[in-house]
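HUMAN: Ready with one sample?

ASSISTANT:
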Amino acid sequence: MILDCTIRDGGYYNNWDFDFDLVKKYIKQIHESKVDCIEIGYRSLNNDKYYGPFYYCSEVFLNSLNIPKELSIAVMVNAKEIEHYQNLNQDLIEDLFIDEDKSIISLVRIASDLGSVANIIPAINNLKKKGYKVSLNLMKVTNISDKDLSSVMETLMRECSIDIFCIADSFGNLSQSMLLEKIKLIKATWNANIGVHLHNNQGRACPSALIAYNSGVDWIDTTVLGMGRGAGNASTERLMLDINEYISDDSSGYKPEKLFGIILNEFAQLKNEYQWGYNLLYEISSRYSLHPNHVMELMTSRNRYSPGQMLTSLYKLIEQYENIDLKEKDSVKNHQFNSLWKAKSYLQNKSVILLGHGSEGAKHSSELKRLIKNNKPVVISLNTVEYLPLDLVDIFAFLNEFRIVAEFDKLKDCNGKILVPADLVPSEIINSIEEDRILHHPVKIESNSFKSNEINAVIPYEIVFAYAMSAILLGSPNIIYLYGFDGYPDGDPKQSEMLEILKLIDKANTLNVPICSVTNSTYPILQKSIYGPQL
């Protein structure tokens, strides 16, 4: 059976904020194509940033989509969120799910790594008590030994009643021979349905999906046009076409032609916008079990770096974090940094100009150089910028290890300091640069918070602008000029995040340090002109 998870997996590109008309059309055509089940999104209480309605999938919202009663609907829950609420003595399942007979949802899938399975068994049993079918989606299966895989299945069969045991190829490196071995092992142990979720990092998700089908796997995850994080997934339409070749009775087969219209129009446009699909960087990362999130971060900066720089960054990351998830990396936390961020010694009673990456930056760069020469402000850059010589920058602010790795070759040839939570910096870089250039300032991400503490920056999102502003305000400057902060289009989630950050900054700016943009900006802050007098 095919489980199409286009909206859930594709939502990573747009924060699960799909156009409603598109989703209604998708649902209608998916139903007509005879797909067995669709995973319409996540269900969650998490509210640490803007997420669209398909991240929450409330019953009221799902009722508004006119979903055919015959179509089976699934949602996904993250095991880490279940564990988080357990630590707070709160039952996430009770908060998220009504009884199945009153719900549009019939299947709940829980995404879990190996270490979390034992902790979520009470949640599984609660879901079963409420009447739901439950699937355990075990992530990073290529990093799990046969012994551990057998053990986790035995635990699940002994302590709960799972309907589907699904293995997820998180790194996109599940070879076809390994896939057959995993299926054989699972069949020898498991007593219920089996599922697979395959990624296309090595360009073989669709052939592997067909192998799984022919090997008797009950549920195969797919997405329309392979939409999904990074290299994407096995494509729904292609698997339908492949399976139909094995079915002699046309009336019992899938009807992929029902999807062709929406694929050639709306989803082709989405693919052009978000650029998912196979490329060499995903292939390389998968060969070394490097999580595809690393490559996705590099891909978001592909317009700023040459292919050679991206490859160099990727190999450095492989050396540092092979087999380690993006959020689980072991960094240089035990390193003792002598050069902490002593904000006032750098900024007190001085003018600061903070450089952003908007197009206005290049447009007025000649005037910027004049201002720096005449006014001698402290120049702080978010990462590095292309429009100003690096030797004119006093401090480079970073909050992303990928940017540090990608731009390190530029940084090592200049004298500017590097403001960064130093535990994000790969040890290779720490050991190859003068330690006094690293201005270590830790960061804490906390919803709806912005604080300038001596010990850390507390910010609502992992956004370098917020980090830099927290560090700057700690130094009590005379004024902060923002340069090259154009703003994002209306409706862009990044614009919403920036507006929220600016409101929090305004509230936290108890010393009333003036903050103004000196280039054209859509942000609701004080505006001046870099060309004006008395700047």
About this structure: The chain has three domains: 2-276, 281-328, 343-527. Confidence is low (pLDDT under 50) at residues 323-335. The chain has 21 helices and 19 strands.
